[in-house]
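Ops channel
N.P.: pipeline sanity check, posting one input/output pair.
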């Protein structure tokens, strides 16, 4: 119960920040409202590509690759890339909105890249769904549609089932059991063991971001504290460190934690959140 009394006001602030971070981009030339090809703005998602070991950042203005201390826009796409997940070597799934001036539907539905974000193809739900969260495990894709609040699932990336309605900051899937999900919500963490059809309180910390790897479950609270669980969220441990800034995106790869903040900073921690280092100057 001690967890539940922490950071409620900060959670509301994070909700407002996430809601304010909408979709923009430009497939053509840069405009005054579009950042340069090396500037991150409104980060929505993070993922490490197994093909090159590099961190990819989904933003308000396309997808960037972080290599060393440099961010480089991948391809010419400047779509507002909201939902984002890496599903395999050079394969990404995403959603969102086209850049201003681009042809096509207002909502991208599910799109896929098989060349590490250089080009994208529409797979399903174009014009119908705007997934602000996408998660993948063992062949199942889960998407949280911002237009309806529906949690949807697909095993072929074409046909979808609506499982429930849930207001979540983030979702994580058990890497061994794709029907087991955790969601971070304003009411606390919630768990589903039937593929998102029903939910129950899961206890635990007042987290906003989640990442579930085969090794452990990692969560970040609204004040930037990193907590970990090695028993499927039954118990949690935390470190003394705290990430600077309001957290908006999280991923973990080979024991390195990557975190993006509302200010557009991307940080890394190799000591479970005890200390954080910026990835760009």
């Amino acid at each position: 119960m001690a967890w539940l009394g922490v950071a409620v006001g900060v959670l509301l602030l994070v909700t407002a920040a996430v809601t304010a971070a909408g979709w923009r981009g430009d497939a053509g030339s840069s405009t005054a409202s579009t950042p340069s090809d090396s500037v991150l703005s409104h980060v929505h998602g993070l993922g490490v590509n197994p093909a090159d070991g590099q961190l990819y950042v989904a933003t308000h203005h396309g997808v960037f690759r972080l290599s060393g201390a440099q961010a480089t826009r991948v391809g010419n796409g400047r779509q507002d890339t909201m939902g984002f997940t890496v599903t395999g070597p050079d394969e990404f799934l995403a959603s969102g909105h086209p850049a201003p001036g681009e042809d096509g539907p207002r909502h991208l539905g599910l799109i896929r890249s098989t060349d590490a974000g250089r080009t994208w193809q529409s797979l399903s739900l174009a014009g119908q769904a705007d997934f602000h969260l996408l998660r993948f495990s063992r062949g199942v894709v889960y998407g949280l549609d911002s237009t309806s609040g529906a949690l949807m699932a697909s095993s072929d990336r074409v046909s979808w089932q609506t499982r429930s309605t849930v207001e979540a900051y983030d979702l994580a899937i058990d890497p061994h059991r794709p029907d087991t999900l955790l969601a971070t919500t304003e009411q606390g963490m919630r768990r589903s063991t039937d593929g998102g059809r029903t939910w129950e309180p899961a206890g635990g910390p007042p987290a906003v971001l989640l990442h579930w790897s085969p090794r452990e479950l990692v969560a970040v609270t609204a004040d930037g504290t990193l907590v970990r669980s090695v028993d499927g969220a039954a118990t949690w441990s935390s470190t003394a460190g705290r990430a600077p800034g309001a957290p908006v995106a999280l991923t973990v790869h080979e024991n390195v934690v990557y975190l993006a903040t509302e200010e557009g900073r991307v940080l890394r921690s190799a000591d479970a959140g005890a200390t954080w280092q910026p990835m760009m100057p």
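N.P.: looks fine end to end. The longest helix spans residues 8-20.
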